[in-house]
């Protein structure tokens, strides 16, 4: 029988490939779902493309590609052991070859009867690595081998409770305590300016003392420990004893993490919930910012309709490599989060691991592609841009966030005004500390904190600034000075003030509280704030009114362009180019970097190259010194397709978008302003298109009809040329908020609370529970949905 099955494989030998260097074998997860070898149906790996498929998706791949040979991987849980490190499963792994469409099975590793190429090359590549490699993808932190036997010096070192700084420099951030000798030293430097001078690592190289703990992470629940010798973050089960050796009592750190415990609702008996809409997202290592944004976005019906509602169509029309398709990976995560029936662990809190989605959406981004913590608000903006870019020609679920802001600028000398509009997706509310209701308490705390630091004493209990939400809204609506305002009425610079109002109200309103500021070291730091954010919000009074009869407009004149005597572009510093080329970078990339950084030196040019490494055009011939950096895009050169797609996704005609980008040197923000300033161009284009439609047959009448209907539905009070907005009443109800714990956006942890079925639910990575006391006053990003007019 084995011989017969082996002979069955011979006709398919030309389709079986040997993995080469750089080939990724998807043997841990399905590219369409979160099926794995542990799922009921196991995982099928294509022996040609090495893509993995769950049982429900392998037939689709066979029909689309004709590939017949798959390796079926199945993992059986044998028993469960528990130790001090948590849970440890023992497995029994099974593998076999399956030939479609008849499902002939060849058990493995009994491969004596199979062709030599398969048995010695392909199967070796797929099976030589233990199936336990699957768990390494989870990036779980392991117990350090030094933890139990760590030697601590009896040198009398005692760590004071505050006022820490590096023993070799003046750094007060990113400090690490060596658990052998008690040395407090700074961590390594990152290219974004955060971190330190690397003295903790230098100390290890000198002493070989392996373990260090990050000072600001010490809480009653544990601390972040790093092993220099093992070169990774580790667990230390004896961390409490090791810290007490230097006089640090972890339980006394309780008051430093009061806000963290409130945000995570620690100490409360929270009831876990399961089922559709209650699936968590695993933390892949500082990826909680991604998990919280995903949870909120996929709780919005428009996103569910777009992705879950079109699941079959998106899967059927996915490219040959679905792991690189944005729509497929979004659907994969959205369906898993929203529909527990698609998961094999409906009644367990395992959570899904969006590895493929994270790799795809962060590709080419210098921050999101790293393993460092990121700003959830910046990632939300990034996701909205990606959704818009990938929704060209179809429904765009991010339309629910888009709204128009009316900006009124007034010349203080002539009292004349100018009204403009801009597109936005989020309101950033300032947090005026001067409006705090407990200001005296804050002043007293700051005085005590400085005294404690000077006298090397324990700091006082932290005090949170309590700011009324009305004060934040008032600060947002107050007039602000316009720097370098040029008055077209005076034909000169003058004082000007600007006020902002809502030209339209979005269906879903996003509010970000400006909790972060920059310290003297330019590292973002978070303000300790509590704001009484309301459950219901009425912004109707902030509706824009437009030009009033009593107002006089500023003339529609542009400031004169003052050209320098020499309008030639600066010569490229060839010495800097050669320095970069000696580092191994392509010559054209070096010339571009020096040119676009204005000959500011090789260091600036180096940073430019690093930030643009993923761009395909990086190696193209760079600008010549005869090009002028001023003015618009040269005639005949089309703007980037990506920028055109972003504008067209907002509802602007393609030709008009191209014209705006050319006129503004491909600057998106200026292009939007140009479009609003030149509406007559859109009207001319619409008339031209109408004339053309009268004289030429319309082959796409059905498509055009649908688009017109969509525009009128989204923006009934605007022409087809304006941006698509879902205007309506300005009354809202809070339905979600994202909270941040930590000192800055570069560290800490995110959780989110979402109101579902009338109950607040907390999403803390893979854990999903009913919330007992949702900390609505400590949020960072708030999400409101519009109330119906009835």
UniProtKB/TrEMBL annotation:
<keyword id="KW-0862">Zinc</keyword>
<dbReference type="GO" id="GO:0016579">
    <property type="term" value="P:protein deubiquitination"/>
</dbReference>
<feature type="binding site">
    <location>
        <position position="166"/>
    </location>
    <ligand>
        <name>Zn(2+)</name>
    </ligand>
</feature>
<feature type="domain" description="UBP-type">
    <location>
        <begin position="142"/>
        <end position="250"/>
    </location>
</feature>
<keyword id="KW-0072">Autophagy</keyword>
<dbReference type="GO" id="GO:0006508">
    <property type="term" value="P:proteolysis"/>
</dbReference>
<feature type="compositionally biased region" description="Polar residues">
    <location>
        <begin position="695"/>
        <end position="715"/>
    </location>
</feature>
<comment type="similarity">
    <text>Belongs to the peptidase C19 family.</text>
</comment>
<feature type="binding site">
    <location>
        <position position="186"/>
    </location>
    <ligand>
        <name>Zn(2+)</name>
    </ligand>
</feature>
<dbReference type="Pfam" id="PF02148">
    <property type="entry name" value="zf-UBP"/>
</dbReference>
<dbReference type="GO" id="GO:0004843">
    <property type="term" value="F:cysteine-type deubiquitinase activity"/>
</dbReference>
<dbReference type="InterPro" id="IPR001394">
    <property type="entry name" value="Peptidase_C19_UCH"/>
</dbReference>
<keyword id="KW-0788">Thiol protease</keyword>
<dbReference type="InterPro" id="IPR038765">
    <property type="entry name" value="Papain-like_cys_pep_sf"/>
</dbReference>
<dbReference type="InterPro" id="IPR009060">
    <property type="entry name" value="UBA-like_sf"/>
</dbReference>
<dbReference type="InterPro" id="IPR016652">
    <property type="entry name" value="Ubiquitinyl_hydrolase"/>
</dbReference>
<keyword id="KW-0677">Repeat</keyword>
<dbReference type="InterPro" id="IPR028889">
    <property type="entry name" value="USP"/>
</dbReference>
<dbReference type="InterPro" id="IPR018200">
    <property type="entry name" value="USP_CS"/>
</dbReference>
<feature type="active site" description="Nucleophile">
    <location>
        <position position="288"/>
    </location>
</feature>
<dbReference type="InterPro" id="IPR001607">
    <property type="entry name" value="Znf_UBP"/>
</dbReference>
<feature type="domain" description="USP">
    <location>
        <begin position="279"/>
        <end position="787"/>
    </location>
</feature>
<feature type="compositionally biased region" description="Acidic residues">
    <location>
        <begin position="682"/>
        <end position="694"/>
    </location>
</feature>
<feature type="region of interest" description="Disordered">
    <location>
        <begin position="617"/>
        <end position="645"/>
    </location>
</feature>
<keyword id="KW-0863">Zinc-finger</keyword>
<feature type="binding site">
    <location>
        <position position="199"/>
    </location>
    <ligand>
        <name>Zn(2+)</name>
    </ligand>
</feature>
<dbReference type="GO" id="GO:0006914">
    <property type="term" value="P:autophagy"/>
</dbReference>
<dbReference type="Pfam" id="PF00627">
    <property type="entry name" value="UBA"/>
</dbReference>
<dbReference type="Pfam" id="PF00443">
    <property type="entry name" value="UCH"/>
</dbReference>
<feature type="binding site">
    <location>
        <position position="169"/>
    </location>
    <ligand>
        <name>Zn(2+)</name>
    </ligand>
</feature>
<keyword id="KW-0378">Hydrolase</keyword>
<keyword id="KW-0479">Metal-binding</keyword>
<dbReference type="InterPro" id="IPR041432">
    <property type="entry name" value="UBP13_Znf-UBP_var"/>
</dbReference>
<dbReference type="GO" id="GO:0008270">
    <property type="term" value="F:zinc ion binding"/>
</dbReference>
<dbReference type="InterPro" id="IPR050185">
    <property type="entry name" value="Ub_carboxyl-term_hydrolase"/>
</dbReference>
<feature type="active site" description="Proton acceptor">
    <location>
        <position position="749"/>
    </location>
</feature>
<dbReference type="Pfam" id="PF17807">
    <property type="entry name" value="zf-UBP_var"/>
</dbReference>
<feature type="region of interest" description="Disordered">
    <location>
        <begin position="682"/>
        <end position="726"/>
    </location>
</feature>
<feature type="domain" description="UBA">
    <location>
        <begin position="638"/>
        <end position="678"/>
    </location>
</feature>
<protein>
    <recommendedName>
        <fullName>Ubiquitin carboxyl-terminal hydrolase</fullName>
        <ecNumber>3.4.19.12</ecNumber>
    </recommendedName>
</protein>
<feature type="domain" description="UBA">
    <location>
        <begin position="571"/>
        <end position="612"/>
    </location>
</feature>
<keyword id="KW-0833">Ubl conjugation pathway</keyword>
């Amino acid at each position: 029988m084995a011989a017969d099955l082996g002979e069955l494989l011979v006709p398919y030998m030309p389709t079986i490939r040997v993995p080469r260097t750089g080939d990724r074998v998807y043997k841990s997860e399905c590219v369409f779902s979160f099926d794995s070898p542990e799922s009921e149906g196991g995982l099928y790996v294509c022996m040609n493309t090495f893509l993995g498929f769950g049982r429900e998706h392998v037939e689709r791949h066979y029909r689309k590609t004709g590939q017949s040979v798959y390796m079926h991987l199945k993992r059986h849980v044998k028993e469960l052991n528990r130790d001090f490190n948590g849970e440890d499963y023992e497995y029994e792994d099974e593998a076999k070859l399956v030939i479609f469409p008849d499902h002939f099975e060849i058990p493995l590793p009994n491969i004596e009867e199979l062709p030599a190429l398969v048995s010695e090359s392909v199967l070796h590549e797929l099976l030589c690595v233990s199936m336990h490699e699957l768990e390494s993808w989870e990036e779980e932190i392991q117990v350090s081998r030094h933890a139990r036997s760590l030697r601590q010096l009896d040198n009398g070192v005692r760590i004071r409770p505050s006022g820490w700084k590096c023993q070799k420099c003046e750094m007060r951030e990113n400090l690490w305590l060596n658990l052998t000798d008690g040395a407090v030293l700074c961590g390594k430097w990152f290219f974004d300016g955060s971190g330190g001078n690397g003295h903790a690592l230098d100390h290890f190289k000198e002493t070989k003392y392996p373990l260090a703990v990050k000072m600001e992470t010490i809480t009653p629940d544990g601390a972040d420990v790093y092993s220099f010798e093992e070169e990774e973050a580790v667990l230390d089960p004896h961390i409490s004893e090791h810290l007490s050796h230097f006089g640090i009592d972890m339980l006394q750190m309780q008051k430093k993490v009061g806000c963290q415990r409130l945000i995570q609702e620690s100490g409360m008996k929270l009831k876990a919930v399961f089922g559709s809409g209650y699936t968590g997202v695993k933390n892949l290592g500082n990826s909680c910012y991604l998990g919280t944004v995903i949870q909120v976005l996929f709780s919005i019906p428009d996103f569910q309709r777009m992705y879950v509602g079109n699941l079959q169509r998106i899967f059927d029309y996915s490219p040959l490599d679905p792991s690189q398709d944005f729509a497929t990976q979004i659907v994969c995560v959205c369906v898993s989060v929203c529909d527990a029936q698609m998961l094999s662990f409906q009644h367990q809190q395992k959570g899904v691991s969006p590895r493929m989605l994270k790799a795809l959406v962060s590709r080419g981004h210098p921050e999101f592609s790293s393993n460092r913590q990121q700003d959830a608000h910046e990632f939300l903006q990034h996701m909205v841009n990606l959704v818009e870019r990938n929704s060209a020609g179809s429904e765009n679920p991010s339309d629910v966030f888009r709204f128009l802001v009316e900006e009124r600028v007034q010349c203080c000398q002539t009292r004349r005004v100018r009204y403009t509009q801009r597109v936005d997706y989020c309101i950033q509310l300032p947090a005026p500390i001067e409006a705090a209701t407990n200001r005296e308490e804050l002043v007293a705390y700051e005085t005590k904190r400085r005294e404690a630091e000077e006298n090397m004493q324990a700091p006082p209990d932290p005090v949170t600034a309590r700011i009324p939400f009305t004060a934040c809204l008032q600060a947002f609506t107050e007039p602000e000075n316009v720097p370098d305002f040029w008055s077209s009425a005076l034909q000169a610079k003058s004082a000007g003030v600007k006020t902002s109002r809502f030209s339209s109200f979005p269906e879903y309103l996003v509010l970000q509280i400006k909790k972060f500021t920059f310290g003297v070291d330019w590292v973002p730091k978070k303000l300790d704030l509590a704001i009484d954010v309301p459950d219901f919000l009425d912004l109707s009074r902030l509706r824009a009114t437009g030009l009033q009869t009593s107002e006089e407009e500023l003339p529609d004149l542009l400031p004169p362009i003052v050209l320098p005597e020499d309008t030639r572009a600066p010569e490229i510093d060839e010495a800097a180019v050669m320095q970069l080329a000696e580092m191994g970078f392509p010559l054209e990339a070096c010339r571009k970097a020096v040119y676009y950084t204005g000959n500011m030196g090789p260091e600036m040019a180096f940073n430019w190259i690093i930030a643009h490494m993923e761009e395909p055009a990086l190696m193209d011939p760079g600008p010549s010194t005869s090009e002028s950096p001023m003015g618009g895009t040269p005639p005949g050169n089309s703007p980037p397709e990506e920028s055109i797609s972003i504008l067209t996704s907002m509802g602007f005609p393609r030709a008009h978008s191209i014209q705006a980008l050319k006129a503004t040197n491909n600057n998106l923000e200026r292009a939007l302003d140009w479009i609003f300033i030149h509406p007559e161009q859109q009207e001319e284009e619409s008339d031209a298109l109408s004339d053309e439609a009268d004289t030429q047959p319309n082959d796409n009448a059905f498509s055009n009809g649908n688009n017109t209907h969509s525009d009128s539905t989204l923006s009934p009070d605007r022409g087809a040329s304006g941006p698509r907005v879902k205007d309506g009443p300005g009354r809202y109800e809070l339905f979600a908020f994202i909270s941040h714990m930590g000192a800055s956006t570069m560290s800490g942890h995110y959780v989110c609370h979402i109101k579902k079925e009338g109950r607040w639910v907390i999403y803390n990575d893979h854990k999903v529970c009913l919330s007992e006391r949702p900390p609505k006053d400590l949020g960072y990003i708030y999400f409101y949905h519009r109330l119906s007019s009835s």
